[in-house]
Amino acid sequence: MSNHVTFYLNGKAVSIENPAPDLLLIDYLRSPDVALAGPKKPCGEGGCGGCTVILSRWNEVKNEPEHRAINSCLRPVCALSGLVVTTVEGTGAVRKPDAKYLHHTLTTSRNAAPIGGHKSPVIHEAKTAVAAKRKSVRDAVRAKLAKQDTSTSLKLVDKVAKHPSEHSHEGMNPVAHRLAINNGSQCGYCSVGFVMNMSEFITNNPQATKKEIEEAFDGNLCRCTGYRSILTGMKTFASDWSGEDEKHRMKCLEDDVHSSQLPTGVAIPFPKEPRLTVEPVESQSDRHQWLTPSSLSELAQIMTAYSGEKFRLVHGNTSFGVYKTEYPDTKLFIDIRLIPELHEWDKVVDDQLIIGAGTTYNKFIDLLAVQMEFNQTTTLSALDFMARRTAGRIVRNAASLGGNTMLVLKHLAKHTGDPFPSDLFTVLVAIDAKITFLVLVSNGEFEHVTLTAGELVNEVLKDSDLADRIVLLSYALPLGRDRDVVLAQKVALREVNSHSIVNATTRLTFSEKCHVENAELVFSGIAPFPWHAHDTESAMQDEELTLDNIGMLLDILADEVRAQLRHWRERMEEVPNEGFTEEYRTQLAVAFFYKAIINALVARGAKVPANLQSSGEVKWGNWPVSNGTQHYSKQKFKAPVAQPYIKNTAMYQTSGQLHYTHELAVPPLTANGALVQSLRALANFRFVIPDSDTKGVSPSVLRKYLSEYASSFIDLITVENIKNGGINLQGMGLDQPLYANKMVSYVGQSIAMVLATTEQEAIRIAEHVTEHCVAYSAPEKPWTGKWSDPIIDLLDAIEKGSIFPDAPKAVPYVSHIWKITRPGSQFDWVLEKNPLDRTIPEPRNGTVGSAPCVIVESTQLNGGQAHFYMEPQGCIAIPTDE
Ligand SMILES: Cc1cc2nc3c(=O)[nH]c(=O)nc-3n(C[C@H](O)[C@H](O)[C@H](O)COP(=O)(O)OP(=O)(O)OC[C@H]3O[C@@H](n4cnc5c(N)ncnc54)[C@H](O)[C@@H]3O)c2cc1C
Ligand code: FES
Ligand code: FES
Question: Ligand 1 centre from 323 Cα, in Å?
Fold first, then answer.
């Protein structure tokens, strides 16, 4: 093994000596040494796609490079050996004006365009070149169309004007260009993620349709532009993008600065050298170690040598996005990607698809597609449905099936963290898939075992340590039979890239038309493992399935789901509370079952009334490609204001060349800061040293503890260090302290700032202080009695009278914060009620807008909305003399 990691970044070789095992690619790319600003880190957990880069390797079989868009926030640098990393910077940059042509005159605020200044010759040259190229593209397209050749090519131009890109590209990444000219970037923080995902997707799928392109974005989030314009830009690359589509595309206005940008083909640099064998990596830091065995015997030796220690096998490492808190305590990471046995399957034997545990989800989806061409079984459809509904495409490019199964097995027992409601594993249990794995036994060798997915769960339930001693090798997936009707279903907070609240796979095996020979009803999200509804299964066995017995079956299921939820209440409380009640989970399970029955009856040719049939159909994914238009009026007299111009920064945003505050270069020796934030609302707080007297310690004692805790710690800034408490420009009344002083009033309030040598260390230490070094107690007067509990919602505020008064009637605006009205709305038919009065009035006759009606009134309460921002909040503070 080597303690160097050598990989290629945007075509150039990089070698890092002994990288920290917990160093993630995104943090490396954004570190001051590399200082790439293209890849962003909005969420750091695989959820937003903002950090997307392309990872390439040489495919020996196809004898060509293989490209995959991955989340760099989940990829350890130690797992990059011999691979090629391409960031947006490597795929074609924006033309920057040549300095010798820059001239400065008076500017307007819009786009800093000189008023009445001379046109820059560089723009003129570029415009002429663009016009010529556009003409040649148009001519080429016309010629192709004349020959009825509908194939498209991304390479719009063969040769473009000399471009000052840092790399060997001749022009701007065309995806970035299309995104910009379709006004697809507002703040631009998500844009590069979209661009990189699409750059890989369109390279691998040059004939993709509009629908396929739209589906490829299930792992990218935008929080401000809106998806209409982003998807329009992307869909212009589709093979079925028609003249009609182009006619209806909402075209934006471009000015000179845009016209001078020349898009070219997507280019992903792939140097010759990475075609050599990948070097296994070994590295070590103060807290972690990284080893890369290349064979099962090496793996057995390492697992034996470190038994009793906290080690973690690593494949795609995407579980970092789900179980982040498990990482700091891990002593040893064992990278198992290079072990051939995990990948060497992929064949059909005895009507079973055998695949390696190291197969990624997207590879699995491709393998299923091949099988589904010959075999239209519902088993394959169920596997395909759940695989596609797992995470988003970018995560699926790295996530392995084995890693997903292990997330279930590792979190079965109490206090092992949130139970994991895997989607695919529910199918594996329902279809009796077999899993072959190795168990490390006492003589330090591996023993081969094969069990069904359900049996494996039972073994780990009996002995939870087993989950730490096994290595999954392969799966044998039955391809399914005609007499099986299998249906997979899932409900999550979002349609895509979201974990199940409850999911289900039902497999009904029929002996005759509708006679049930066997029923497998498996649900996740009810118990900490995929749970069989045994009572309902028994009630179905050897019975005729009819519409008449649905009610009875649903009642049996509801009863046993409720009992199961009660049984696991304590364990399931460890699942993040997103406000789902047990009854909601019960109703989801019952609704899934109802759908499964109708689906099976229709599939078996039973008579089902037309108005019921649609309830058995699978709707997910079967929707038409989206479309949308925005309507606005242009006020010509205000030009250039109030016109649909693309902002100048758009091209820089989409090609990753805009530097946000967080990406500005900092002076040498700059310390990195991260905030310690309150976990409580309305409480007194004090600093404490973990596992010691909780009376409270001074900031200087805590500083001493922190310097021992982490060598990277520099200082702790509290209110005591800020003259007169400082000035905080946040908050409605500009009256909040910069750092809380003895008392916190809301969750998330800043208590202190940790300074450390690197950003990651500052965040890690601040999280440690937040979690372990702050203790809270009830507040003192005047926060006692009526005010002792924090106000956390509008109703609390109304109840306690903590509301802003209405503005006097005389003022020309409406200011009822808690009884929102809008000018022009008619509310005279609404009863004047105390907002806290929950009684529902009887229906009454009245008129609304002079129409006679029966008025039925009720109250609707909406909970808070979960939302996160893409852009991090950051600033550079440069101290000056007072
Ligand atoms: C944003 C996001 C969304 C997601 N959404 C979903 C979802 O909707 N539905 C769903 O089911 N899952 C979802 N997941 C989970 C995802 O499927 C898993 O993270 C992934 O499959 C794990 O595979 P990996 O190769 O990255 O495993 P790793 O992260 O490398 O490892 C995961 C665990 O498995 C162990 N392990 C890995 N391979 C083996 C092996 N061969 N033998 C023994 N142990 C092994 C590791 O030690 C570790 O404990 C999501 C994940 C993310 C990040
Ligand atoms: S930062 Fe990587 S997915 Fe959000
Ligand atoms: S432009 Fe997408 S998050 Fe702002």
Answer: 10
